[in-house]
Structure formats: C-alpha cells, structure tokens
Automatic annotation (TrEMBL):
Entry keywords, A to Z: Membrane, Transmembrane, Transmembrane helix
Positions of transmembrane segments: 6-24, 52-70
Highest taxon in the source lineage: Bacteria
Pfam families (UniProt xref): DUF1467 (PF07330)
Protein name: DUF1467 family protein
Length: 88
C-alpha cells in the first residue's frame, strides 16, 4: 500500500468514525436543565471540539492499524473469501 493510498483510507476512516464518536457523552441543554434562549432544547450544553477530535483520532488510528494488519501483514483481501454467488 502506497503512502497516498494509506492517507486516503485513513481520511475515510476518520470521517466515518467521527459520526460514531460525536454522540458519545453528549448532554443536551434539556438534560442539563439550562436551555439558552434562542436555541433548541436538543443543542449540546457543553461541546468540546478538541476532545472529540482527539478521541476520534485515537479510535481512527486503532481502526486503521487493524485494517493495515489484516490487509498488509496477514494478506487477507477480497480474493481470500470464497464466492458467495455460485457460478461467479
């Protein structure tokens, strides 16, 4: 795997994992009981983009490491699995 391919795959993994990490430990203004005028009750009470980015980067790096281990070190790819549809 080339460096550009690895960066592209990491980029896709990072953005995909972001949608998993975003709602973790999120408390809305309604949960806190402190709704600010002009905002919806489901808006986050306290949002830390830095923490979310850090957690996301850590999880994404672990997922990419597993992906790299499986595909590059162990050599498992799509051709390693038997054909699901007979006759193909």
């Amino acid at each position: 795997m080339g460096i550009l391919t690895a960066v592209a795959i990491y980029f896709v993994i990072w953005w995909t994992v972001l949608f998993v990490v975003l709602p973790i430990r999120m408390r809305s203004q309604a949960d806190e009981g402190e709704i600010v005028l002009g905002t919806t009750h489901s808006a986050p009470a306290r949002f830390s983009l830095g923490k979310v980015a850090l957690y996301n980067t850590l999880v994404s790096t672990a997922v990419f490491a597993v992906f790299y281990l499986v595909t590059e070190v162990w050599g498992i790819g799509p051709g390693s699995f038997p054909h699901i549809v007979p006759g193909t």
